[in-house]
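Hallway conversation turned thread

IA: we were arguing at lunch whether anyone had actually written out Pyrroline-5-carboxylate reductase catalytic N-terminal domain-containing protein end to end. Turns out nobody had. So, for the record, here is the sequence (217 residues) and right after it the structure tokens. Reply here if something looks off.
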Amino acid sequence: MASPVSTLPSQSPVAAPGSGSAAKKPFKIRAELLAPTRLAPKVQLLHHTRSLSIQVVAHQVFVLVLACTKCFAAAGKEPPRIGVLGGGSVGTAVVMTVLVNGYRADRIALSTRQPDRVPRCESLRAPSALPMFQLVPRYYDNARLARESDVLVLCMPPAQLKSVSIQIRHALAANTKAPPLVVSALCGVTQQSLSKACGSQAVVRVQPDVAKIASRW
């Protein structure tokens, strides 16, 4: 006897949820998440631009120091005394750039609010950087720094210009024959504002081309 034939229509197996082309597509991790900094691309751009801008500022200051050194040597004087006001990333970069290029540590001084603290910045990452940095005299006396410096480099935040200028104004005016050269690394502060705040015409600015630096990334 023949087996009865089923009259039910054949049904194709139901696909399991998540199966198909979407399930076969491999999971990909964004490359920036594997970067050491784990920063978004825009944040990385800002970070690298800021780092390069600080290096450019430090090298511009060194060029001015080198020019002053040649003038002092032509007059038969010792190298100028460099005073850096502000011990943050910019001030530390200026100190290390001058030191790495062979400038004497005893001709440099740093005035910062926390002279005993070693700042965390890229300029001190090299193993040989910290011993060199510790050779530089550090204290917190802006008036003394201005009085004892031939070249005074302002590296503090721009918002502190008013309070700092009150401290150094009289010290800068004390030496009328050879006033110290004030070098400003302050962003957004014009040379006219600096001259008025410091009470001196011997003021120059260093400012990197941030737009050009950012365009390289």
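OS: looked through it. Strands lie at 82-85, 108-111, 138-139, 151-154, 181-184, 203-205.
IA: good, adding that to the notes. The CA atoms of residues 29 and 35 lie 11 Å apart.
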